[in-house]
Amino acid sequence: MKRKYLIIAIIAISLIFTTAGQATIAGNDADYPTSVTENF
Amino acid sequence: MQDFGSLIRYHRKKKGYTLKQVSQETSYSVSYISQIENGRHSSSVVVLETLANVLEAPELLRVEEDFTKIDQALDTWYQAMLNKNLPEVERLAEKLSSYLPKPFYTTLNTKYELYHFRYLLVTDKITEAMHIFPEFKEHSLGASGLYQKLARKIIGIYFVKLNQFSTALQYFEEISTETNTLSQEDPELNYYLALVYSRLEKIMDSIESVNKALLYYRSLNQHNNTLACEVLVCINYIIAENYVTAEKKLFNLLEAYQQSKPSFLKESFITHNIGYVSLRLKKYDQAVEYLKKAIKTKTTDQEKSSSYYLIAETYAWEGYAKLALTFIDICESIKENPKYQYKAFILKNIILGKTTTKPFIEKLENEILPYFKQIDDQTEIEDISKMLGDIYYNARIYKMAADYRKTKKQVHYLENLQLKYNNEGR
Questions:
Q1: Where are the TPR repeats (chain B) (predicted)?
Q2: How many Cβ pairs closer than 8 A exist between chain A and B?
Q3: Which of B189, B195, B386 sits opposite A32 (nearest CB)?
Q4: What's the total number of domains in chain B?
Q5: Which phi and psi angles does B159 have, rounded to 5°?
Q6: Are B341 and B331 in contact (CB under 8 A)?
Q7: Where in the sequence is the domain holding B32, given as residue range(s)?
Q8: What ipTM was estimated for this complex?
Q9: What's B10's domain CATH number?
Q10: Rounded to a whole number, what is the distance in angstroms from the first to the last CA of chain B?
């Protein structure tokens, strides 16, 4: 019985790590307006 | 007026007079003349005439008039920059460069130096700005009071232009943390603070600052500036991954924009970001449509490359590898924007499945990551480090994987934790 849970746990952990191992592209690619008026 | 005082001193020394001799000739006390020379005492017309006579320097009488004229011209110049009236900006730049810098006009020279640097930023003369920056920084940060604050703001904007947001933030925060209320009333400073916070993904800080700026601009019905702030609000929604709200707000903005056609806010700031949010919402056709619209209203290749890149990314997500690669080629050919050259390179290798090859990893580690570290783009540094961590993890090189995966945020948290622990220990 214990062995069964151990195997399930190992599979679960390895699943978590495989999804983390994918190459991702994110970053911030928004265009920001860079001119506003100040206060005199 | 300190400038005027140094001019009197200049003429006195030219005549070879001591303070005592001038005092004897004019019947003013030595300390009074000394105070005038040091700018601690403003002189009346009568005093001026007497001094001009004794020192045989009639130009002293014209100086005050010249000074006021140049000072006004400088302010008109600065206002033209803020209003993006570029022909007027260039005209005044040429005119003023024939008057300034001038010996003895110390405060006017300081003002001119500040405005001139801002002029280089407004007119996108970045190479020239970079060239004179070290000298400018040394001079301007030594200036007094208001000028020093303005200097910090202008230097901050310079670093925004260079995409070095952490450095920019340092300069902006130095002004905003000072107790003087004047800095809090400058909506431009608040806008830039909001922009930089947003770039560094400090969204709560960004919201607070942009709201201050918005309040000001709305109350004065400044449409251009209000729209710019609203765009920033939408970008914050995107970064906070609240895409549906961002999309709705951006479409409202586009409508408002088309009704009023503001003079200096480009439509692409709205259309590009609609494209960006559409991509995140997986509305691929809409993304391509608006990104192409953005490209049409952008004028330089450097500006266009962010939109080209997002079109490439959209096609990649859709699975159109060939189309994606066409736009990647365009991005890689635009040398003026290395950020998107590198991002396109990474995307290309993901599409071609070459992320585990040696040349790719080497370029990522030896060229791309150092580039983003050099320009201090924290978001990209984190993403690329994470990617390298994943690559090494998959290759089962766990030590390297761990090193890359613990970049930035985790390290920061750890430092904070230790700090807290130490404080409690006391």
A1: 268-301
A2: 102
A3: B195
A4: 3
A5: -70, -30
A6: yes
A7: 2-57
A8: 0.73
A9: 1.10.260.40
A10: 53
